[in-house]
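User: Run a structure prediction on this.
Assistant: Running it now.
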Amino acid sequence: MKNLKFFEKVVFFLNSVVAFLLLLSYVLPHVPPKTFATLSVLSLGVPFLILLNVLFFV
C-alpha cells in the first residue's frame, strides 16, 4: 500500500469505511435496539451503502 497515490489512499479509506458500515448494518438486526439506539438508524441506509459499494467496485 505504500506505492499508492494520495487520491488512491483516500478512495481506499472511504471504501473501507463504507464496507465497515455496511457490515455493521447487516449485524444490527440481531442486536436489541435498546442497546444501541442510535446505530439502529444505520439500517435505514442499507440501500445507499450497497449503492456506494457497487460504485467503488466499478
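The chain has a mean pLDDT of 88.
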